[in-house]
């Protein structure tokens, strides 16, 4: 069992001693360690059971600090940083020698983010090193959006979880990299592509998979609940399962045929940020119900609906 609390000083001491801890962010909880301490970084990979070819995001608290981890800061990256940091945006930038190859899995770029959570910003301000942190879930499972989610899955392996309440954004950061002057979205996330395009104009979005060398860790099957999640039409699923064996995950409405207690509606008012906030918690709830299968409906392909659909599609893929 980890200690769940709000004692920033204890967390600071643990991090300085090379430990890894759970930290809150507005997107999802992170499993954090000193990004400048290779042993701490190795511990992150082992606690999470994550392959070392999947690089980590470095979390810091200012653009000035971020600038010391990189050798160049493209104009468009600066514009995005100024518009969205602190916030759910991760930038892939050419790394300086300050960042070890372990953090970036040998890539020449480092992923950087300033998270927007008061406790974690306070923690970062008290440290003289940045925090490497992947989402605090076992590799391949749904990301945690509360301290309890972290405790349930990693509590036995870490000493402390800093409790910052429920994550307000609820899905991971949007990852943006650069090819020459062009910005490329490598992972859809908490900042909609439309919002990015309002700042820097049209961007390309590449769907990430194992075959995408730019984002080696973005495996197709991710965010998965243990129960099969299907996006097939409901009538088809009803041919195989009885209504009380099915749970449903929908955007703004209940569906016929399935018992109401097995249904989770992401946002009854069809609000995308609210839907994103509920997504992972509802997936977890459905996963723990006495049902056989989860029926999920895709959202309209706009705004955060795109990032939510990306998670739903990945959860629907069973094999890695
Ligand atoms: O919202 C978030 O981004 C959360 C919170 C904790 O900040 N973090 C998060 O980390 O989602 P993680 O490790 O679960 O996902 C980071 C993704 C991975 O798929 C990894 O492959 C990719 O970022 N990544 C990291 N560094 C990269 C790099 N240099 N080039 C390409 N992809 C990179
Ligand atoms: Mg993750």
Describe the overall structure.
By secondary structure, the protein is of the alpha/beta class. It is 31% helix and 18% strand. The protein is built from eleven helices and 15 strands. The protein has helices at residues 8-16, 38-48, 63-67, 75-84, 101-104, 118-126, 147-154, 193-200, 234-240, 272-287, 304-316; strands at residues 3-5, 21-23, 30-34, 57-59, 89-94, 109-113, 131-132, 160-162, 174-179, 182-187, 204-205, 229-230, 246-250, 263-265, 293-296. The strands form three sheets. Strands 2-3-7-4-6-5-9-10-11 form a nine-stranded mixed sheet, with helices on both faces. Strand 10 (182-187), helix 8 and strand 11 form a beta-alpha-beta unit. It is globular and about 60 Å long. The two termini are 30 Å apart. Residues 209-217 have low confidence and may be disordered. The structure holds threonylcarbamoyladenylate (TXA) and magnesium ion. Magnesium ion binds at residues 134-135, 143.
The gross shape turns out to be globular
Radius of gyration: 19 Å
Structural class: alpha/beta
Total strand count, please?
A: 15
Share in β-strands: 15-25%
Put simply, the count of helices is 11
Overall average pLDDT = 94
How would you write the strand order of the largest sheet? 2-3-7-4-6-5-9-10-11
């Amino acid at each position: 069992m980890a200690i769940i609390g709000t004692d920033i000083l204890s967390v600071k001491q643990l991090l300085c001693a090379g430990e890894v801890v759970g930290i809150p962010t507005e997107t999802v909880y992170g499993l954090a360690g000193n990004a400048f301490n290779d042993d701490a970084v190795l511990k992150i990979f082992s606690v999470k059971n994550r392959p070392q070819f999947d690089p980590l995001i470095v979390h810091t608290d200012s653009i000035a600090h971020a600038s010391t981890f990189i050798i160049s800061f493209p104009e468009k990256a600066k514009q995005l940083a100024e518009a969205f940091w602190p916030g759910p945006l991760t930038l892939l930038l050419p790394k300086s020698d300050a960042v070890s190859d372990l953090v970036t899995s040998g890539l020449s770029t480092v992923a950087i983010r300033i998270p927007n959570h008061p406790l974690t910003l306070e923690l970062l301000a008290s440290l003289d090193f940045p925090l490497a942190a992947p989402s605090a879930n076992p590799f391949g499972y749904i990301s945690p959006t509360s301290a309890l989610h972290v405790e349930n899955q990693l509590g036995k392996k870490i000493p402390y979880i800093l409790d910052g309440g429920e994550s307000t954004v609820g899905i991971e950061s949007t990852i943006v990299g650069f090819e020459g002057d062009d910005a490329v979205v490598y992972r859809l996330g908490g900042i909609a592509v439309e919002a990015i395009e309002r700042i820097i104009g049209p961007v390309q979005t590449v769907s990430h998979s194992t075959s995408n060398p730019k984002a080696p860790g973005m495996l197709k099957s991710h965010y998965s609940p243990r129960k099969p999640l299907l996006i097939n039409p409901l009538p088809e699923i009803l041919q195989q399962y009885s209504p009380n064996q099915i749970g449903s995950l929908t955007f703004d409405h209940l569906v016929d045929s399935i018992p109401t207690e097995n249904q989770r509606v992401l946002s009854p008012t069809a609000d995308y940020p609210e839907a994103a906030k509920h997504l992972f918690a509802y997936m977890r709830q459905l996963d723990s119900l006495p049902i056989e299968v989860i029926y999920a409906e895709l959202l309209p392909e706009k705004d955060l609906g795109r990032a939510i659909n990306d998670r739903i599609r990945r959860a629907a893929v069973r094999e890695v």
